[in-house]
Amino acid sequence: MIAPQCSADEWWDTRSLDALYTEVLAKYNVDPSRVYLTGLSMGGYGAWNWGMKAADKFAAVAPICGGADYPDLVCNLKNKPVWVFHNANDPTVGVENSRNLVAALKKCGSTSVTYTENATGGHDAWTKAYNNPDLYTWMLKFKK
Q1: What is the spatial distance between Cα 115 and Cα 125, in angstroms, rounded to a whole number?
Q2: Inside any domain, residue 43
Q3: Among 24, 51, 111, 134, which residue carries the largest CB count within 10 Å?
């Protein structure tokens, strides 16, 4: 597992993430067919954005309470398993971000998108998502 952090006052830089991905695959014993992408909040944006720009790198993508800076690229994920999590009463990142991206994926023809929306929980959709053993079982079903 790798959990990169953004520098203070910066946003995700997919070129830096691509470089990290390449370095990790070269240095460590990683099965490149079983790399999964997830992130929460700002990392949820990172998961959507990087997943859309580099879908071929990942076996599955699980964005949590995020959104996308490039929603017009969402169809790049139409053949990728995607499980999205968000809380309906999120005051930080509006739930419509996930709803719209899931709807757009389905419009592109995706049949492998799952959406879990909890009625409550505020911005913290990640505790339920990451405490759900089904998420990990779901991930491990997929290889790229």
Answers
A1: 12
A2: yes
A3: 51
Burial code (b: 16+ CB inside 10 Å, e: under 16) for 12-35 equals bebeebeeebeeeeeeeeeeeeeb
Dist. CA 83–CA 130, nearest whole Å:
12
50 is a domain residue: yes
The β-bridge partners of 142 are: none
Place of tokens 């991206």: 101
Q: Whole-prediction pTM value?
A: 0.95
- H or E element that contains 43: helix 42-53
Beta-sheet strand order (sheet of 113-118): 36-40, 60-64, 82-87, 113-118
Q: Tens digits of per-residue pLDDT, 24-81?
A: 999 999 999 999 999 999 999 999 999 999 999 999 999 999 999 999 999 999 999 9
Coil/strand/helix, residue 4? coil
Host domain of residue 60: 34-140
Tally of structural domains, the chain: 1
Q: Given CA atoms 58, 84, 45, 43 in this order, what sign does their dihedral have?
A: negative
Say if residues 78 and 110 touch (Cβ distance below 8 Å).
Answer: yes
